[in-house]
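Entry type: protein chain
Record version: 2
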Amino acid sequence: MGARRTKTAPLRTSFPVVRYFVRTVFFFCNSAPSMKTGSTLLPAALLLILASLALAHDHGDEHGDMNMDMHTDKAHSHPLPSHNTSISTNAGADASNAYYFALAPHRGWLYLHILTMLLSWVIIMPVATTLSLASSRHHVPAQISFLTTNVAGIVFAAVHAGLTEDLYPAASHRKLGWALLVILGVQAAVGMLARVVRNSGHEHGGGGGFRAVPAYEDEAYSRLYSDRRSADSGHGGSVDQESSGYGDEDHGLEWVGEKSARGRWWVDLATLENALSASVPGIFNERVVKICNLVYSVIARFLIPLGFTQICLGIVTGAGIFMGSSVLNGLAHFIKGGVFFLYGILTLSRWLGAFSELGWSWNLKPTTSRAFTCETVESGGIFLYGCANVFLEHLASWGGAWSHGDLQHVSIAFMFLGGGLLGLLLESTWIWLVLGGQDHSDHPAHNAGFTPNPLPALVIFLLGTLMSQHHQHSHFSSTIHTQWGALLAAAAVCRSLTYLLFFRVPPRSTQPTRPPTEVLTAFCLIAGGVVFMCSNRDTVNYLERIGVDAMFSLTLTVGVTALCMCWVTVVVAVGAWAGGRKAEVERV
């Protein structure tokens, strides 16, 4: 009976959480009726439904546990096998050997945490980021949806943590989660501050009402809106939504310092402006706006790799891997494989035209661009990787004898160091001028955002070839290493074919050029990175125990890679659509 009371007590504490979400939904419904789009209300409603499902799931788990108690004796509770033996769902497991994915009680809250965080960081955040970089007004509701689902995921994680024991002490997943919450708070704060300063009466000489555009937009929107406001003032018009000429579809949200014709306000920024004027009057200047916009933009660009890192740490924490002496092996495979995964995402984005303003989309540089070539960035990254790994490859056996594997890895690090440095030298216009005796304008990088520099591709090809023949502790592990080695080598071959295509027919336009070989390059890099991450010792041992072959992991990886590339294509297309609408507005 005591055990049953212990299980039902946490269940009762879940009801305030449900009531909290109910009140949240009604708050948004009552306080924001002028918000025409449902992007903020929909996540709240979904979260309410999900919370109810989690409660029902936990209730079902408890009934299952009670039935087990009725059919077993006092010695029924067998220790849960360690994560080095097998997966179990025994509710009475020994917590010292358990991990979160294997615990049946209160698993619904863990599932909700995973679903909401995937929705937040995989679906909504990339869209909000690309809308931000495209200076779209639709970024505001997307960002609100992202923040809402992220906070909900944190709430679900807190509820689950309160109902279960800490099975992964000092987990980096929790620490980075709180750090990301602070970063998102800073981003929201600087965005709001820039908007208040830019639209304040101190700069425009106006009063309280204004129509908000995101703080990261360039000044074309501000000039366009100022012209329209002047025209409206000359004809006796107002500056609210009905008379702006954009149409309701174009802005959706209205931030006003006074009550609008719709009778409600979303955020009273006039009060914030008055408070800042009284306490920090010197804040109303253009420099503050530029600093806030810079901070906002930098955070937006780093959210994708940070989100990817947090998802990886969540997998590690939930599966209970990389503990003790396995941590260095796991970190090495996850970091290096993750770099190739993100490199593949970057390559696909280049092919889709995401970096055409830098000349990185296999196109000519715009005349105003002074960006480095993409090969310069790749060579620099390879060089830094080599410099770091010269000192890190022996970290697991620091102070001990150098093994055969340590010497192999350090040799590869020297290959990265030398190959990356040579690639940087080949990108130097001074080297080009000295060797050729010609004007540096003949350098390919002077006109295009890329150069036929084969060193990055050569280094990756050699890495894949060497690691595919790297001796491992089992045949299964050797096969998986051969798979990701072959994928990386294939990516390098496809990149070399791209250079051959452009050597014969150079780009002639600033518009993106899309060689089909780069799609294959991106696919091989993404799939190779994922297989690289899965080749760590703990994952390989688990796959061997459950009796699957190496083709299972490769087949699963290929499917995940295809879906990932589909989603990246959709996200970049959304950004291009938003940029096109912005250009249409500017032409009006």
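Comment: DSSP finds 20 helices and no strands in the chain.
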